[in-house]
Amino acid sequence: MNLVKTVAATAVLAAFGLGAPAGAGTMDDVKAKGFIQCGVSQGVAGFSSPDSAGNWSGIDVDVCRAVAAAVFGDSNKVKYSPLTAKERFTALQSGEIDVLSRNTTWTLVRDTALGLNFAGVNYYDGQGFMVRKDLGVKSAMELAGASVCTNIGTTTELNMADFFRTNKMDYKPVAFEKADEVVAAYDSGRCDVYTTDQSALAAQRLKLKNQAAHMILPEVISKEPLGPVVRHGDDQWLDLVKWSLYAMIEAEENGITSKNVDEMKASTNNPVIKRLLGMEGDMGKNLGVGPDWAYNIVKQVGNYGEVFEKHIGVNTPVGLSRGVNSLWTRGGLMYAMPVR
Ligand SMILES: N[C@@H](CCC(=O)N[C@@H](CS)C(=O)NCC(=O)O)C(=O)O
Predict the structure, then answer these.
(1) List of residues 6+ apart from 232 with CB closer than 8 A
(2) What residues contact 248, with CB distance under 8 A and at least 6 apart?
């Protein structure tokens, strides 16, 4: 029966041109080649962006580094594929990348019809609008007739259409494939408005010639839960990516940081921490990795709060506050399932 289902699923994927080379077995493939191929953006500060030497960093990059720490005990065993919004799902479906960690919104269609699985959420976001201050607009409800710059192949385009239609306002979409083309078009005055996820507005604003001349309008017009994505039909790999993210959140909840993890490991009597750090239970074995999987994540990458503050927090140029991305114990949405 399972074989029949697999054959049928393969035929369906092939019929949609999705190919079938990389269904199950990503864990074995990754172990055999010795690194994880991680799909990232082409450069969104704090999320995934390269430095001048080509080293990638950001909270999306750190999800891939966490998975590499869990599998290999080495967070550096990652190669990066910069992808536009339009290219990203094909790259995952075809097996070109092992995981997509690139400000990607979890939606029903992506989770089902595209043959993908979301492994969790590493940033809860929502779509916003940026305008030049001298446009004299204080609310998105004053944008009737505006030209609006955005990216092709995104939820942004769809939400924008919903927003203007619902509010019975005309608008002129100006869409580009590359994010830098959108920024350049907006900065040169080709459109009145730049719309994307609010976190990306904060990041992309850093690329504008005169940042102080722009403002983000108060309205948030959508839900954009952003998180890592894998292929449908590979539960073992899905589990590993999911629990690598949970490990970062669980570590924060338990006060375990990259700085104190060794001390915690040596001295704790807390069974939750003992299970997470591999001293009790057999959590790594269940995931197909070693007992130190979560220890390696925290030691080499950090807990979720550390990663947030390092790349996008209030003391970084991106300057985002935790808001709904706080732990559930502080009124936020970040909640890891129990490690037991
Ligand atoms: N979260 C939305 C939008 C994602 C998106 O691609 N946004 C653009 C606007 S800034 C982006 O990040 N581009 C970066 C790039 O192409 O490198 C989605 O999943 O569709």
Answers:
(1) 23, 115, 116, 117
(2) 62, 66, 297, 298, 301, 302, 303, 304, 307
Query: Torsions phi, psi of 322, nearest 5?
Result: -65, -40
Give dist(CA 119, CA 336) in Å, integer. Answer: 12
Q: Which of 207, 230, 10, 215 is nearest to 118 (CA)?
A: 230
Verify whether ligand 1 is closer than 6 Å to residue 198 (CB atom): no
pLDDT digits over 314-328, tens only?
999 999 999 999 999
Please list the residues that pair with 327 across neighbouring strands. 334
Ligand 1 site, residue 93, Cβ cutoff 6 A: no
C-beta 195 within 6 A of ligand 1: no
Which residue stretches of the chain have pLDDT < 70? Answer: 1-23
Ligand 1 proximity of 84 Cβ (cutoff 6 Å): yes
CA of 84 to the centre of ligand 1 (A): 7
**Atom 20 of ligand 1: nearest residue by CA position:** 154
Task: Kindly state if the Cβ of 41 falls inside 6 Å of ligand 1.
Answer: yes
pLDDT of residue 24: 76
Q: Where are the alpha helices (DSSP H) in the chain?
A: 2-15, 26-33, 59-72, 88-93, 108-111, 155-166, 179-187, 198-204, 235-253, 261-267, 271-276, 283-287, 293-300, 304-311
Contacts of 218 (CB under 8 A, 6+ apart): 139, 140
Tokens at 47, concatenated: 């999320």
- Ligand 1 binding pocket includes 104 (Cβ within 6 Å): yes
CA 226 – CA 125 distance, rounded (Å): 7
| pTM greater than 0.85 (yes/no) | yes
Nearest ligand 1 atom to the CA of 153 is 20
Q: Cα 74 to the chain's mean position, in Å? A: 21
- By C-alpha distance, which of 242, 232, 241, 244 is closest to 89? 232
Q: Are 250 and 335 in contact (CB under 8 A)?
A: no
